[in-house]
Every structure is written in structure tokens, then in C-alpha cells.
Amino acid sequence: MSVLAVDIGTTRTKAALYDNDLRCRRTESVSTAGISATGTFDVGAVIASLLDVIPRVVSEANGSKAATGISAVGITSFLSHIMYDAAGDVLGPGLSWSFQPDRDALDACRNVCRTAGYQPERPISSELLAPRLVHLARQQPDLVGRIERVVCLKDAIRTALCEDSDAWFVDWSVRDYSLLRDRTDAPITPILDLLRAEGYGKPESLLPPALPAHAPAGALSAEWAHRLGLDAGIPLAAGATDGTTAMYGGGILAENRIVAVFGTTDVVMRAAPAHQSAAAGPIAAGLSRNAAMRSDFEVVGGSTAASGSVGPWMDNLFGHGDDWESIPPGAQGIRVAPGFAGERAPWNRPDTRGMIEGLSLRHTGAHIRRAVLEAQVFRIRLLVERILENTGGAGDPVLLGGGGNRTPALDALRGNVLPWPLRWRRDRELSLCGAAMFACAAPERDGAQRDRILVKLCNRAAADVQIGEGDQSDVNDDSPDKTVYSELYSEWVEWITRVFGGQR
Fold first, then answer.
1. Between 375 and which of 44, 305, 336, 352 could a Cys-Cys bridge form, CB atoms 3.0 to 4.6 Å apart?
2. What is the reported pTM?
């Protein structure tokens, strides 16, 4: 038996077949259509990308025959919000993770929470649903009375494939990014009151019921089974947003693991007992507390801003090349505050802008490129330190890395800056792998058994690492570069704390 995993990213849409032991049999991908640089996307165009790639991977893997061996489907997508009216029609473009609501909308959400004495489980930032709804109410007031339902892209697609087109669900990751309901599904009253004041009639019903990512959320309809080359009636996992899904693809429920996904944004998370992270106060440290697929655990960490995007950006500025590798550590005095697209964790200030200090006429684009890349990795180290401080002690963690933002030179830089063992998953497609995990568990009716399957698969993923050329387990703890970077990192933290006004 196998499962079908689908990952809809802002650049590529991928589909893959995985065996139940997480071995990937085949992967296909196409360019994702309909994505705008403004943070919006054409829902229909994105769905068309999906319908292009699924039949391809299914038919080529099965000799153009129906994939009768596929037991379930798991879908993940970038964090997004799609608005629907009462007739089930999409209202305007979808909002991707990079959509930026006005600062006034963010401040309105912060202020009502502060006034009510409510402490959110994650920092109030631009990717949350509540400030986006406030922004829409103020910028497009004609929409307010028409918005009936808000879901994520993967929820919209899963529902379209489902036998019951009225079976609307989101998963815990979408709920946790909403600021409309808390971890227990209780309404967040000050935010709902704010939305009513902005003109929303029933804000408490905007978000459908939430399920864990590995729970079944419907079955494939006969129509779509025929179009995709699959069997009708197979379960569709609830799924999760791509960052959350990648954490499970990296094995986050395995003991003492920290998962780092190096991609468009760098995301770092650790699963920890809920009472430890709650007592330590991750919000005060600039981190987020997320629901975990274990009732007694939370996933604590944060995501950065546009880390992988700096590569193409620098290519546009300085041309392509690896000339930065010849520049010594420290970039001969240049330091970078990496807020070129605003900042997420640990500062969570979307209005922050990047800064380059120490430029002189002797410096070249290669110096700036090295300084920018060093700052990206320094920020990862700062995030990991914050996570360890706020999850009940350091222990002896192992970082499991994955994602597409990798080169041998960049891997070497990460290995020299990060003082913990760093391993790479053989399967770099962590979001696809996580979607496959959720699909493997979805056919089980018993929730406890689904949990056990997911933990088992996380342990398998955590053990599936490669040690080879470019892998940073080969970097000695006492190497000269590690000593140099330890000093540079301490200096950078002191400097950037001043630059960002003491908000670490």
C-alpha cells in the first residue's frame, strides 16, 4: 500500500507517492500558477496546477492504470486564507503568507487583547487571520457582510475533492494562526468583539471546525477519483500548513529533536511537554506555542522572514556566483540585520527593515553576500537558543535539517555557526513527507492509534539521515572556524540587540 502526498508551494506544486514506511516511490512537480508578488493568489489557477501534477505522478507510477494501491491522500499548502460567500463562491483573491495587513489592523488586535488582559499563544503578526479580517473590513467594507467562511488553500482543495462538498474543516495549524479560537477551541472574545465592531455579523462562525492534521476529513468523490486516476472513497487527511507539515516530515515527535527547515523562510521548532513551555513563557521570548499531535506536548519555535529569498535578491544585485566563499568569516567588518522583508521570530516586527553596517570602498558584493548569509545563520542559532531556554532545559539536542535552501558552502557555514549536531534528512522534501505521514495515519478510525502511527513515523524520519560530503556532522567541535564564529556570533547578538531596540 502507498499514500499520495501533495505540497502546494508558492513556487512549485509537488505530488509524490510514499510507501507506508515513508519510502518515496516517485515525485513530480509543476510551477504553481496564479501567485502574485503582492501576497495574493488566484485560487482557480493554483488548483489547476494541482490537477496537472496529480494525474501525472499517479499514471506514470502505475502504468497508466488506476492507483488502487493508494490508501489515503495528504495535502499541504503554504499558509493562506480564502474567503467564501454563502453560495460557496470565492470572494476576491486568496491571501498568501506574505500578505501584509496595515499596521493599524495589527495594532487594533494587539490593543484589544492587552486591554482585556488576554495573552495570545503566539505573537500577533501579519500572517494571522484576525488582523487580515480587520484590514479587509477597513479597506474593502463591501466584503464584510458577504464573507461566510475562511479556510486555508489546502482545505479548499481537499473539500473540492471530497464526496461531501459541505464538509468544511480546517486543521489545528490554521486555527492556531487565526486568533479567533484558542487551543481548546474556545472563542477569543476580545478579538471577536473587535470583528463585530468592524462589521462582521457572526465572526465566531467564520472558521470551520478544526481537526488534527492526521485525522480523516472526508473521502474522495467518484468524480474526482475518475479524473485523478484514484479509487473513490479513500480518506483525505485534514492536513496542515506547509511549515507545520515539514516539522513532522523532519520527525519532530522523536525524542530531543529540533527540526529546522531551510527554505523561503527558515522555520525552527521543538516538541516539548506543554507544562514546560507554558511555564517558561515562549511568547515573551518571541516564540510561538503550537498544538502538537500529542495531547501532553506543544511545538515551540518560530519562523523567520524571507531567508531563502535573499539568494535570488542578491543575485539580482550582484550577479550570480559563489564569490562569497573566498571572503573570510566576519566579511571584513560588515554586519547585517536581516530584516529585509520585516522580521518574524524572535522580534516579530513586520515593519522592521534590514541594515548593513560597516561598508567601505574596499568592500565588494561578495562581502555583502557573506555578511547577509552569516546573519541568516546567526538568527537560526539565536532561535534555537531561545527554544532551548524555553522548553525545559537544553538537554542534548540534535538538529534535523531539511528544505531546498542548501548548497555545500551554505551547509558548511551552518555547521560552523551552529554548536549542536546537525543532520540532514535523506528525503529533503519535508513537507511532502509530513503530508505522507498524515495520510498514513488517516485511515485509522481510532484517534489513539493514529497518534501512535504518527509518533512511529516521526521516529523513523528522525533516524533517516545522511552523513556525507557537506554534512555538518563532519565539522569538528574544536575547528578554527567554529571558534571564530562563536566570537562573531556573540558580537552580532550584542549589536543587533541594540539595532532592534533591545527586542531579542
1. 336
2. 0.91
